[in-house]
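User: I'm writing a tutorial on reading structure tokens. Could you give me a worked example: one chain, its sequence, then its tokens, then a sentence or two explaining what the tokens reveal?
Assistant: Sure. Here is the example chain.
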Amino acid sequence: MRFLPLFVLGYCLHAQTGENVLLVVNKNVPLSRQIADYYRPRRSVPVNNVCTIDTTGEEEIQWRVYEEQVERPIGDCLKNTGLVDKVLYIVTTMGVPLKVDGPGARQFSERASVDSELALLYSKLKGARYSRMGGVPNPFFMRRDAPFRHPAFPIYLVTRLAAYDLADVKAMIDRSLQARNRGKFVIDLQSEKDEPGNDWLRTAAMLLPAERVVLDETTRPLYNQTGVIGYASWGSNDDHRTQRWLHFEWLPGAIAAEFVSTSARTFERPPDTWAPGSNWDDKSRYFAGSPQGLVADLIHEGATGASGNTYEPFLTACVRPDYLLPAYQQGRNLAESYYLSLVYLSWQSVIVGDPLCALKP
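And here are its predicted structure tokens:
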């Protein structure tokens, strides 16, 4: 028997607009400005909601650079324009630093993604202080029946407009404006793994309309799917996956999540001959310090949104598809769907896409 969801969205979903977005631009990277100039008019983001910072174009930075050249000027933008409470979403553009290096290991690491760290900025502007070590519990996690607003949820939802190049980012933005609630959700387990992730994938399938789900529990990876609006899998951590490209037909508005540790480690484009893998001992598969797949591949192939990680988040801190996909299918926008699926902030996650993207009827 197929079980129906035990929850009902008991509120009217508020259609947020560009007035709720702060768009962050790195003045030293022309691509950052080009992306902002393309996105801003298409989502009617007010000029006062564009925050220009002066920082390096390097993807990896140290904490001092993050605090002085990224977090502080963005906080000043919000305060000086009176937007601290009105802004709900911060959108970073390609060219804004991606990740912060730091000491420590495993769950005690001080490494973080810039975007996940920026999510705490709302609380910091209200006087909160946080340790750099480890993740901070996300107050919006699992809150699928609550509207996202301030001060009920004292965080910003941060997404990134980034891909391999300007053409890919523009195409991603265009697809977000064309999103419709149609197509199928492809959920691909790796049956040989006795992991909680497989349970989350199965639960996601149960919570979605049965006629719109493709669920595969075999060892055979799914390729060549058509009409895809949502996708979740183990990505390059699936030992049986041998192809870099999925060769999906992605519908406008399609989103994806994979249980892959370092898929947002870089947005530099690897050689066409590169192929990711799950074997860390095979150095021939390495690109940018890891053999694992890259989230930008999903965007290049046609996805409108995707999640990845800059360093090692561990499985428990990856995006949970059992919250992500049902929320998105039921009308949540991209940013809210991803963030209610994340256990921790100030950690490794990067959410790629337009935060306002939502599936229209």
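What the tokens reveal: Residues 140 and 346 are 14 Å apart (CA to CA). The longest strand covers residues 250-258.
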